[in-house]
Write a structure and sequence with these properties.
The protein is α/β, with parallel strands linked by helices. The chain is 41% helix and 15% strand. An 8-stranded parallel sheet has the order 1-9-8-6-5-4-3-2. A 3-stranded antiparallel sheet has the order 7-11-10, with no helix packed on it. Strand 10 and strand 11 form a beta hairpin. The two termini are 32 Å apart. NADPH dihydro-nicotinamide-adenine-dinucleotide phosphate is lined by residues 23, 46-49, 73, 75-78, 97-98, 145-146, 262-266, 280. The site of NADPH dihydro-nicotinamide-adenine-dinucleotide phosphate (NDP) has 20 residues, from strand 7 and helix 13.
Length: 319
Amino acid sequence: MENKNRITSLFKIEFPIIQAGMIWCSGWRLASAVSNAGGLGIIGSGSMYPEVLDEQILKCKAATNKPFGVNLPMLYPDIDKHIETIIKHKVPIVFTSAGNPKTWTTHLKSHGITVVHVVSSLKFALKAQEAGVDAVVAEGFEAGGHNGRDETTTMCLIPLVAAELKIPLIAAGGIGTGRGMLAAMNLGADAVQIGSRFIATPESSAHDNFKQTVIHTPEGGTQLTLKELTPVRLIKNEFYQKVEKAYESGANVEELEQLLGRGRAKKGMFEGDLTEGELEVGQISGIIKEIKPAAEIVAEILNEYRLAIKEQQTEKFSF
Ligand code: NDP
């Protein structure tokens, strides 16, 4: 039986489950595993030097015949080289984030690439639509990593965007289960994008120390901070406590920049330095308890989604 909605048709995938592109955590192994499981896997290119992305795309192609994408944070310093690589390898789908969607959308689309832009507000969702993207990811405050300044939660953001956007909508931020997926779809999304849950997989390129920390992070264990630089949600480790102390002592932007320095995300998530590194993960880490293969996660989410739909026929909902 063919199950098609606007997103599964657009990406030519089986299920509307998209794995978020996450720096240092999502290379070819994770992306191909999610695509092979019927979702859409995404290579997070923000942490990859140009030659690394080239190699990762080739490996992903060798590991799956299914569509996959590349996430391109527009703050990336060598973005022109990444774009060339993506076009050279005919990557079918690109998710752009952290920047103006007008800059690259027309160019990418002229090469037959499906373009999706990640936003954190209705205003930017409409701007992305105007720029000609094929779909939008609306990401709420709960999400890990880079985030918006307005702190709009997924619960509020998705219906706001769904009411005005004409093109397909993907919900992100705080989604990691089948019930969460159904909730997001009920709020008006056509698909979900899941990041944190896929860090806790054998296929993720994150350091094992970080994976273990993710599955032991309690509710309230993350915080959105450094809004004066690029807002980021991370685990409240020693580095985070230093940031808090800096705020308490009235640090200015230059002092915060100095404290952050360079390469902290790599240190934490890829090299496993849990003290001094940036550990970027979403609020949903509070319910992630196990490391398991990406395909199992996709299957589990789908089972729970289908069960939750059946439950809607029961008394609890019958009023
Ligand atoms: P920093 O400036 O602190 O460090 C740059 C890091 O990126 C280094 O670890 C470096 O690796 C690596 N890198 C890969 N390619 C290049 C390149 N061409 N030039 C310079 N450095 C490169 O940045 P962050 O680690 O905070 O962020 C890196 C990228 O990831 C940015 O593009 C940013 O926009 C994106 N990002 C996206 C997030 C999201 O949520 N989507 C979250 C956080 C960051 P090495 O140490 O080996 O030199």
